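Order emerges. One example.
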Amino acid sequence: MSESKQIDTAGATRRGLIATLIGGLISLFPFAAGVFTILNPLRKRGEAGDEGPGRLVRIATLAALPDDGVPRQFPVIADRQDAWTRHPNEAIGAVYLRRQAGSNEVEAFNATCPHAGCFVGFNRARDVYQCPCHDSAFNADGQFVFGPSPRDLDKLDAEIRQSDDQQEIWVRYVDYLTGIKEKIPKS
């Protein structure tokens, strides 16, 4: 009788181990699905949908930008989304646009100073962009003139697109790291 008791105990132990393994595998699936659901928005964050850093944003119509060569500041309005929350039509920055007389070519510059990230203003009397924080200055072409800025203003890609009855200015808006010589996009 003792031999059959030992066999039943060994069989019960094996059955218990198999049941534990199967139960563990079964409970792993809902856990994995929960982790995937939580991390999914974080995984999607890096998907841009179009080439290059930044995002292509409609800034203004060409008619809204005078052709006098004087830069004008425009807000960058776009939908912003963090991992789980969507913020529609939010100001995410600003750009300066300018075009020369008789031309439909547009230049675009990020409105933040590459030194410390303060918004620059355009001083029409001196024909320079000027940073109010540490007095860096840049000419109308965005080139560094003086001050502590490590580089020129950050030039952005701009294009004109025809829409129904008007021409629109679209800019690939990118925020770059400040305080360094290299233009490295913020992530």
Q: What stands out?
A: The chain is about 25% helix and 35% strand. Helices lie at 2-44. The two ends are 72 Å apart (CA to CA). The chain has a mean pLDDT of 86.
